[in-house]
Amino acid sequence: MNSEKWSDFENDAIVTDYFSMLSDELAGRRYNKAAHNRALQELIGRSKGSIEFKHQNISAVLKGLGETWINGYKPAFNFQMSLVDAVARHLHHRGEWISEKPSVSFAASEAPGAIWIGTPPTMQNTPPPNELEQMQAVARKFDVAGRDERNRSLGKAGEERVLHHERAILTSAGRHDLARKVRWVSQEDGDGAGYDIASFTPEGNSRLIEVKTTNGWERTPFHVSRNELTVAEMNRDCWTLFRLWNFSREPRAFELHPPLDTHVELTATSFQANFH
């Protein structure tokens, strides 16, 4: 077994192979992981186990970048930054991040239902994961929060998904009248309101919802604007940050309520939110 540090050639080869499989998976095409592994063994001279573990390392890098990864290659951490650089090179050559691919809108006849809502990371009765520091270092190096903030396709798709979620929740509660009144404010009026969706609770109370969407994991950092923070503080009783994650596969979410600094660390850089 070759135990030496992986070269740029080896890293680039396995990253290219990984993305070939990931592209097939996201497109619903069948592929053979064992065949890919054998081809890499011949190309770079590494063992089957070494290649499999490096594939898991790549999954971990993508997790830190707030991207999706291959099912079956559970993220494995404590990777070297040279592998992160190889992933970044590949994404640069692609000319896009995975999460920047256009998202499909939903026709009214096929509107999706409610989203699974979980507990925010800061309210879970468990300590932060051991890999959190390394994941946040990767996210900071490549400005993942800034990338998602600029990705209007992803943001718009997330807002539309939450619009359908809110209508589904109200409809299931028998409040068809309120479901018809839910508004996509950022689409109809522009981005200046400090929230994206104007909805209601089943009891008829107002819900002002700001949506933050990523394809990666629940702790991926995101940007909060000064206006959003101001509106949140002025409307503590009804403003909600709806955090969508794992969006490209099976959207999951949790909600944060003001004051936001009880849940996240807001840095000075455009109020980037990082989970404690």
The radius of gyration over CA amounts to 20 Å
- Per the principal axes of the C-alpha atoms, what is the gross shape? elongated
Record field, number of beta strands? 9
Distance between the termini: 40 Å
Could you estimate the helical fraction of the residues in percent? 40-55%
Main sheet: strands, sense, barrel? 6 strands, mixed
User: Roughly what is the average pLDDT, rounded to an integer?
Assistant: 87
Structure report:
α1 (8-27) packs antiparallel against α2 and α3 (48-64) crosses α5 (132-141). The two termini are 40 Å apart. The protein has helices at 8-27, 33-44, 48-64, 81-94, 132-141, 144-150, 152-172, 176-179, 185-188, 226-234, and strands spanning 116-117, 183-184, 197-200, 206-213, 222-223, 239-245, 252-256, 264-266, 272-275. It has ten helices and nine strands. The longest helix is centred in the middle third of the chain and has 21 residues, at 152-172. Helices cover 43% and strands 13% of the residues. The protein is of the alpha+beta class and 276 residues long.
